[in-house]
Design a protein that fits this description.
It is a single chain. The protein is mainly alpha-helical. The chain has one domain: ABC transporter involved in vitamin B12 uptake, BtuC (Orthogonal Bundle). The chain is built from 14 helices and three strands. It has a three-stranded antiparallel beta sheet. Strand 2 and strand 3 form a beta hairpin. The N terminus is likely disordered.
Length: about 350
């Protein structure tokens, strides 16, 4: 491992280069690593707070003892059986949303290039409504509908935006148009289904972690691990694509092939998250931007985006459970509030700088 310095817009910035072998090389800016570690620590601290808060209140020490199998019977029952699955899913789904948003924003080179904006989550909701109307509303049926709807929407947007390649701005515009059409279709489906199915679909459409248990944890963790490994194997190609097609091509990247591969990974991440918890809005949009501001990096970084997504969702879920206790809100209601405030601030700041 060697430590070097690189000159950037803000001066001389240290980075750490890891070179275990010729086939594998990683370079990290020290500030990016530090920010990522801080975000992970904050996420863990919030997770401990969430595990100890509720009808049965536990201290952080009792929570940690239960996690390592040294707590009381009641503490281990509450922490391990009842609360831990939800906390794990909040962290992993938040990380998946942050990664997906980072991929799409890097590919489009636009802060609005998010799955929320270009219609992928709306398409997942359409898939759920179709399944609810024609098949049923069981968990695995709903998850399959969300996955198929997300994939079909992605294919449609990509096909309509393709013209001798896919440009980021065109992808966003086409995605917004497709999202508007799907939104009207979703409203029509909700009007046509029976009241109970419409209520269940509406709750799911807000994005919620309520009712999730250990049965959802292994598939979400497993798929996220596989997709994260695939992203790691991609190396620095996403950063090169963010620099522009000409630069990426000059550096030996097959642009369309690499862009399509990252699109597939980004869609898979948002599909995993949406299939498990519904279309949770604004995390994928805001997490990469907040992480970029904290790290001060010129481009979108994946690790801080994942850590920020996990932190945003675990904090939002804690607020959703306890802000209006005993009533539990869908976590999507909280993320929309936080994300909407951030989005308004971002637009106001952009207007002031012009």
């Amino acid at each position: 491992m060697t430590e070097r310095t690189a000159t950037g817009r803000t001066g001389t910035l240290p980075f750490v280069a890891l070179r275990p072998g010729r086939a594998f090389s990683l370079r990290y800016r020290v500030r990016t690593v530090v920010v990522s570690v801080i975000l992970v620590v904050l996420s863990f601290a919030t997770a401990v707070l969430s595990l100890g808060t509720g009808d049965v209140v536990l201290s952080p020490g009792e929570v940690l003892a239960a996690l390592v199998g040294r707590g009381s019977t009641i503490a281990e029952l509450v922490v391990l059986d009842l609360r831990l699955p939800r906390v794990l899913l909040a962290l992993t789904i938040g990380a998946a949303l942050g990664l997906s948003g980072a991929i799409f924003q890097a590919l489009t080179r636009n802060p609005l290039g998010s799955p929320d904006i270009i219609g992928l989550t709306t398409g997942a909701f359409t898939g759920v409504l179709v399944v609810t109307v024609f098949i049923g509303n069981g968990y695995f049926q709903v998850a399959a509908g969300a996955l198929v709807g997300c994939l079909a929407t992605t294919f449609t947007v990509y096909l309509l935006a393709y013209r001798r390649g896919v440009q980021g701005f065109r992808l966003i515009i086409v995605g917004i148009a497709v999202s508007a059409i799907l939104t009207s279709i979703n409203h029509w489906f909700i009007i046509k289904v029976d009241l109970q199915a419409a209520y269940a679909a509406s709750i799911w459409g807000q994005g919620s972690l309520n009712g999730l248990d250990w049965t959802q944890v292994p598939p979400v963790l497993g798929l996220l691990a596989v997709l994260t490994a695939a992203l790691a194997l991609g190396g620095q190609r996403l950063l090169l694509l963010e620099m522009g097609d000409e630069i990426a091509t000059g550096l030996g990247v097959r642009v369309e092939r690499a862009r399509l591969a990252y699109l597939v990974l980004g869609v898979a991440l948002i599909a995993v998250a949406t299939a498990a918890a519904g279309p949770i809005a604004f995390v994928a949009l805001s997490a990469p931007q907040l992480a970029q501001r904290l790290t001060g990096s010129a481009g979108i970084a994946l690790a801080p985006s994942a850590a920020m997504g996990a932190l945003l969702l675990i904090v939002s879920d804690w607020l959703a459970q306890h802000a209006f206790a005993p009533t539990q809100l869908p976590v999507g209601v909280v993320t929309v509030t936080i994300g909407g405030a951030y989005f308004a601030w971002m637009l106001a700041r952009a207007a002031r700088t012009q």
